[in-house]
Design a protein that fits this description.
Helices cover about 65% and strands about 5% of the residues. The chain has seven helices and two strands; from the N terminus they run βαααααααβ. The structure holds protoporphyrin IX containing FE (HEM) (2 copies).
């Protein structure tokens, strides 16, 4: 007799956000490293080929995909399903505080108890929220660098970052968050999938998760 039942968890829009976000970051990080420190011989720039322009072009195409993904996530924080709304991951209720405590104990191997819930655990949810805020800063600093003379971006950019140099510094520094996050994220997704038969990894493809029958 089956002891688990299948529940719909993530909307198509959330899954679309996830893969637009994850894939664009791969391109943004690679081309970002190149923009920072071009590894080809710059003598060829503009003659036989134009690698810097190509890298910047890929960066901008990925940046628009990334910005659209950020807009989708903002929409879902407000209008998404019960698991996708921001209230589901904030440690403000007794249930969420308890989940945060249980997750910390389980992740540090102090306890084996797992708090079964359909949405993200609160620790993951907070890491995703922090990543979302970092993503908004990437978009703002990126567009400020892209359109330094457009009055809209100049206004926001100068107000938030002071000058181009600081925006670029912050843009570079935050890149490391996305790389570190991706490694820990993959590790924890696999760890959870191996320890709890909830179908966590497939949920980001299919939208469904498994829970014990009530
Ligand atoms: C996770 C997302 C992103 C990462 C990891 C990333 C990474 C980088 C890095 C490392 C650089 C080189 C800066 C340096 O000299 O150190 C850069 C430059 C730049 N990025 Fe991004 N970026 C991201 C998102 C965006 C977005 C959303 C935009 C929006 C348009 C953008 C626009 C730019 C621009 C305009 C430059 C400067 C290019 C130049 O100086 O020629 N980036 N990015
Ligand atoms: C093959 C690679 C990846 C797999 C299999 C994967 C898998 C997953 C899974 C299973 C979840 C849901 C986890 C949960 O309920 O807490 C998730 C969420 C998430 N992942 Fe990934 N992921 C991958 C790559 C990435 C990368 C590269 C990034 C960005 C650097 C990323 C960013 C996120 C974010 C922000 C969420 C939260 C979604 C939300 O806002 O609700 N993922 N991922």
């Amino acid at each position: 007799m089956a002891t688990y039942e299948k529940h719909h968890c993530w909307s198509v829009l959330l899954r679309l956000f996830h893969w637009m976000f994850a894939l664009s970051i791969v391109f943004l990080v690679t081309t970002g490293f190149y923009i920072n420190n071009p590894w080809t011989n710059t003598m060829i720039e503009g003659s036989l080929s134009f690698p810097m322009a190509t890298m910047r072009y890929i960066h901008y195409v990925a940046a628009y995909t990334f910005s659209a993904a950020v807009a989708i996530r903002l929409f879902l924080y407000i209008f998404g399903n019960a698991q996708e709304r921001i209230w589901d991951i904030l440690p403000f209720t007794k249930r969420n505080l308890n989940n945060l405590k249980m997750t910390l104990l389980q992740y540090s191997y102090i306890s084996d108890k797992h708090d079964e819930r359909l949405g993200h655990n609160i620790l993951a949810g907070l890491a995703y929220l922090f990543t979302f805020i970092a993503a908004v800063i990437m978009v703002l600093s990126g567009f400020f660098m892209l359109y330094p003379e457009a009055s809209f971006w100049q206004g926001w950019g100068v107000m938030l970052f002071g000058n181009q140099q600081f925006a670029r510094f912050l843009h570079h520094l935050l890149m490391w968050w996305f790389m570190i996050f991706a490694v820990i994220h993959l590790y924890l997704c696999i760890w959870n999938d191996a320890n709890e038969p909830e179908g966590l990894i497939s949920s980001i493809f299919t939208g469904a998760k498994f829970k014990h029958k009530a």
